[in-house]
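hey so i finally got around to running the thing on that chain from the lab meeting. sorry it took forever, my laptop kept dying and i had to restart like 3 times. anyway pasting the input first so we r on the same page abt which one it is
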Amino acid sequence: MMHLSERPRLLVFADNRQDAAFQAGWMRDHARRFRLRALISQQIPKTGTSIGDIVHGLDGCSREGPRAVPGALPRGLAGGAV
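ok and heres what got predicted. didnt touch it at all, straight out
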């Protein structure tokens, strides 16, 4: 009969910090996507509009700076801020 100290062992390690960091990035990306979709929907009047008009409206919002569209646009696009 084998003694407990002689038996093969298995060590399992899970780093929840790595998973939490991945989830935080995932949530940030999805939140930005939802804010951008909301911003786009605000640019579309009930009567409809063209894609060019939507782009023009979004361009105007981004030129107002990051405070106009907090977190909706990536840092490099929000008013030229880096």
